Amino acid sequence: MHLFFQDKWEVEGLQTVGILLVVCSSLKLMHFLGLIDISMTDSVEDDFELSTVCHRPESMDKLQEQTKFTKKELQVLYRGFKNECPSGVVNEENFKNIYSQFFPQGDSSMYAHFLFEAFDTNKNGSVSFEDFVFGLSIILRGTINDRLNWAFNLYDLNKDGCITKEEMLDIMKSIYDMMGKYTYPTMQDDAPREHVESFFQKMDRNKDGVVTIDEFIESCKKDENIMQSMQLFDNVI
Prior knowledge:
13 helices; 4 strands; calcium; Recoverin; calcium ion binding
């Protein structure tokens, strides 16, 4: 994976790496929670119904209807989530601590903040099991449009429907802090800004200084590398 990122960095720029990180970092979170192996027994369902966590998730059947996971997969997801988050929710500080273990060579705190904001759809400062599986369902099982919409929402920091250069620079700096500054020490400090300019040259079709969701999806769909990255983990669990 490290060599893959190294090859892509110079060729496609941080925007492609950013798309990949949406998926890869979610997989790292799943691995941390022990969710890659789904060889669990049916007793997980009993744990789901009888657990006395502070936040009780919705019924398994309802979550199955609302996501693209099977009942068995939801059982495994819940077991891992409950083991690591016995209170039933993850706050931002916990989220950052988890991601600091994924990227010990850099500072992942800002990227973890942005990713936490994307998972925290209710904007209540915590990610519940429902928030977690809804996001994963989109990232791992959603259509290409679903996944690109989710990625756009991650980059649209103030949620006003468009990505500005300032927002994209914040994203690029967070990725650079997490991976580039330490993994690629020869890169210049102005590299994130250069990648932002490259991003806007590619995606700001009408040159009005912002990237809309339509421009983002259209440009991503025309990028073969981004399309391949969106399909890398279709059958992870």
